[in-house]
Design brief:
This protein is mostly helical. The protein contains 7 helices and 2 strands, in the order αααααββαα.
Length: about 130
Amino acid sequence: MKILILLYLTAVTGLSLALFQDPVLEESMQRGSEIYDDFCVTCHLGQGEGVAHTFPPLAKSDYLMNNREASIRGIKYGQSGELIVNGVTYNSVMARMGLEDEEIADVMNFILNSWGNSSEEMVTPKEVEAIQKK
């Protein structure tokens, strides 16, 4: 009987963790959503789908998920040059947005956890601050 109760509690705890995100992450994502709407939606569009061969998608983006530091650097300092996202080559310019480190962390948390993306590690302002321009 104790084993069944332990299994039940373990299952309920696991389900709760899966269904309810960390409140700190949720708040960051909410702020990030607002920043996205102000700075990013024009090029990357409302559902992060981007514009084929012009502005890369953020939705289900292999580049975003596999190049965390480069993605943060692109938002922080701007970006130009060729990159490949989901097998498609992009070669356009993204201007520096002029965002503070906390704003960059918030928008990264939003895009890393939206539109089919899922990140286990929250982006922090301290992480953004440590990233230098190459």
